[in-house]
Amino acid sequence: MLKAINPATGKTVQTYETYSGKGVEKIINSVDKSWHKWRSASFAKRADIMQNISSLLKSKKEELALLMAVEMGKVIKEGIAEIEKCAWVCDYYASNAESFLENENISTEAKLSYVSYQPLGTILAVMPWNFPFWQVFRFLAPTLMAGNTAVLKHASNVPGCALAIEEIVREAGLPDNVFRTLLIGSNQVENVIRHHAIKGVSLTGSTPAGKSVASIAGSELKKCVLELGGSDPYIILEDANLGEAAVKCAAGRLLNAGQSCIGAKRFIVLDEVYAHFLEHFTHEMNEGIFGDPTDEEVTMGPLARTELRDELHQQVVDSVVKGAEVILGGEIPHRKGAYYPPTILENVKPGMPAYDEELFGPVASVIRVKDENEAIKIANDTVFGLGAAVFTKDIKRGNKIAEEKLDAGCCFVNDFVKSDPRLPFGGIKESGFGRELSVHGIKEFMNVKTVLVK
Ligand code: NAP
Does the predicted TM-score (pTM) go above 0.90? Predict the structure, then answer.
């Protein structure tokens, strides 16, 4: 049984029966059957459907934002922006997939030799709850445009979103069984991966889930793309515009109530501007309106589930026991729901959860350093490697640090890290491997086929 619980009230929104093993098997077989037709549909036909999906998303953005608010606590304004971004990624691949997948001629001694990108078949997506529509559409738009079919195992706390996605693509005219949602628990994922029709897996989620899925996929020699956790470092150099940096850093930390893989998590500040930055940053972290996510004025809602809020608080408490200092927030509010306030921890050191682990909520770890070299060393002193940012007025200096010094998949200068359909997205180290979005994302689940004619 899957249960959607409103994190603002603790009340059950709806319960759903999970699909049986036999039911799942039947769906995967139907999706596999549909692949044989879908792979030969023209790009123009696929693009038409993708544009219908985009239009439907735009026309339903308010109701979908409300669904996210009641299932996982996202505030309405962010929910609407998320749906608009999903529409964008559908339009983007509708316009670009064909050119991204054009044959590439390579000159050899043969009459003709070239690379052709051919779809693999049915791909399993295992997705998280934090951006319930965006995580799915950034996978689904390139996957469908490439001629693959897909099944989705969404996070157990957002079954309504999972079914809404299936309904939208059906209403947009996607042929039957080209995409299906599977309402299953994580214990049913192994059998899906091992099904002969599943040709690859894309998982976005935590590092432990990624390791488990990758080992099963590896044992079946099936390719996977893993978008996992992060502990993104933001370096504030002595020549940064501190007011602007503080605005971006707070926005990067508080977006989605801090529940973002590419959330700004560790703030590494040079000694000479430390006090000044912290003053601006504390002000910005305290600026929002905190409360009921369905209230359109509210800028930060509850976390998605009470136990996740409690785990986050435990990480704060354990860090404080080891010497961190709370300078903002840090207490569970006396109110119903999975709320946690914007929090800043100072004196964060190795050995503390706030330094070593991912904090998946609105908690900022601030670290003071003497110079640029120490800042880079601490930025890279993590098992993760998803995003990173550097703030400086010297663009050349920032560029060099971003390009050559920071060990992460997405490095930004003077902005917080965000995904964009046009730019590759993904991490290194325990943040995963493979890329989504852009020309790189659409090629992940393709047979890069060599054709040679003598
Ligand atoms: P999660 O617990 O790993 O769950 C993600 C998905 O994996 C859910 O569908 C979950 O199903 C499933 N799952 C969990 N354990 C599994 C297992 N052993 N085998 C198969 N499937 C399994 O992560 P979450 O709490 O939903 O999301 C938060 C995490 O995702 C954070 O670490 C965050 O950084 C990461 N994330 C990364 C990105 C990125 O692009 N790099 C984006 C967003 C989030 P159930 O819900 O049924 O358990």
Answer: yes
